Amino acid sequence: MSRKKNEFFEWMKALGVAVLLAVVIRTFFFAPIVVDGVSMMPTLQDQDRMIVNKIGTKLGEIKRFDIVVFHATEEKDYIKRVIGLPGDHIEYKDDTLYINGKKYEEPYLEKYKQNGVDGPLTEPFKLEDIIGRSTVPEGELFVMGDNRRYSKDSRHIGTIPIESVMGKTNFVYWPLSEFGVVK
């Protein structure tokens, strides 16, 4: 009888360690997310399943053009691309991105631009027209969706606090046809 009891406790201990390990990994390191909506098309599709890397979300580790997940509201998380870092001046004119006066290519938008969209993909703007400041404030990011015509992003909600960033993501695991790293 005591042998069965010991075996039961060993199984319970192993199960408890597994559950604890899963909670720690999901809380501090990685978490699954589901893309909800079309704001990141063509890079990400509605209902793509991705892994969020919670490691390396401090300011020095977030780079321009990273795809990040952040808490937009208490109920809603957004997934967007980092366009501006603290101190950056952002401007769009003639469907071209300028950061601190330097022109930047956005290869992730080429698919939309090649489809011959009617009018600009990204309406012209200057950062000061949106947030009333000429540069992205310290501790904040300027983010945009890749589907510029249908994205609620920093053009609408303003810059986002870096503390609201849950993590970076660039790996789709479902559907299998989209499996892999996105840029």
Element layout with pairings:
Elements (H helix, E strand, L loop, with lengths): L1 H27 L1 E5 L14 E5 L13 E5 L5 E8 L5 E4 L2 E4 L2 E3 L5 H5 L10 E2 H5 L8 E5 L9 H4 L2 E2 L3 E10 L5 E2 L2
Antiparallel strand pairs: 1-2, 2-11, 3-4, 3-11, 4-9, 5-6, 5-8, 6-7, 9-10, 11-12
Shape: elongated
User: Which CATH C-level class is it?
Assistant: Mainly Beta
Roughly how much helix do the residues carry, as a percent range?
A: 10-25%
Uncertain runs are none
Number of domains: 1
Distinctive features:
Umud Fragment, subunit A, alpha+beta, protease, 12 strands, 22% helix, 183 residues
Describe this structure in words.
This protein is α+β, with helices and mostly antiparallel strands. The chain has a single domain, classed as Ribbon (Umud Fragment, subunit A), CATH 2.10.109.10. Helices cover about 20% and strands about 30% of the residues. The protein has four helices and twelve strands; from the N terminus they run H-E-E-E-E-E-E-E-H-E-H-E-H-E-E-E. The strands form two sheets. Strands 1, 2, 3, 4, 9, 10, 11 and 12 form an eight-stranded antiparallel sheet that branches. The chain has a four-stranded antiparallel sheet with strand order 7-6-5-8. The longest helix has 27 residues. It is a single-pass type II membrane protein. It is an enzyme of class 3 (hydrolase).
